[in-house]
Design a protein that fits this description.
The radius of gyration is 20 Å and the shape is globular. It folds into two domains: 171 residues, Rossmann fold (3-Layer(aba) Sandwich), CATH 3.40.50; 63 residues. The protein is α/β, with parallel strands linked by helices and 297 residues long. The strands form two sheets. The chain has an eight-stranded mixed beta sheet with strand order 3-4-2-5-1-6-7-8, sandwiched between helices. It has a three-stranded parallel beta sheet with strand order 10-9-11, sandwiched between helices.
Length: 297
Amino acid sequence: MQPPGFWQNPPEKPGLAARLLSPLAALWRLAGERRLARGEWLRLSVPVVCVGNINIGGTGKTPTVIALAERLKSWGWAPHVVSRGYGGSLHGPIKVVERRHKASEVGDEPLLLAAFCDTWVARDRAAGARTAIAAGADIILLDDGLQNPSLAKDLSLVVVDAVQGFGNGRIIPSGPLRERLEGGLARADAVLVIGATEARDRLVKRWPMVAKLSVVGAELRPLVTGVDWHGTRVLAFAGIGRPEKFFLTLKELGAEIVQAEALSDHQPLDRRLMQRLEADAFFKGAQMVTTEKDAVR
């Protein structure tokens, strides 16, 4: 299921559906504010860096966590990632092992992160962080933890897609936001805006409160693998926050997309779906291509 179109309406013209859903959005906001007010905000013995977002869905948190982990390791730190394990059945705390665990157990994002850094899944983030410290972590990367009040953060980074921005600026289900933009930014130290320079400038202009924080620009670029995609017929499928970004990357690499399947974020790749995609690829003479996050599922 893809997000409703009215979520991306201009803030000044959110649409009738957004207005009708405002009472439910108010309940969501109150529940979130109450949870934050009752938080313990435990201070750990090591630094905690939070990578989160105010939007639901994909904004680029996972590649951001990977980039931070790689940079920290190059500086001599021993970072461990602590994640809730969205979509997984295990409550933890448990260390994610690529060859042992499945996405259905620990979630697809932790399984991907585990390839780059020691990663723990824990519904209780504080317990997960303490376990990571006992295992040798000297800095914690809290994946998707901006709205989690169990741990005090030393640095909180809000990640936002430059094109998607903050949508119509309204809270779920009226819009794509988990909480009021003002509230989320008030607990952040910096905003990482992922996208082209022009799109980043437009976002800051539309949402001037972002400029009150340190704004860092970034772009997602494909790694050089030596594969020549020019003229390659592909059937592309992706179950990430914005599948169209993946499809655009393939086009920019020169691939000929004969079929693009935009799946729901975190959608399970069951046997029936994969058999259909395999059949489509066979009859169209195309190579199946997906994202690394989808591949672990």
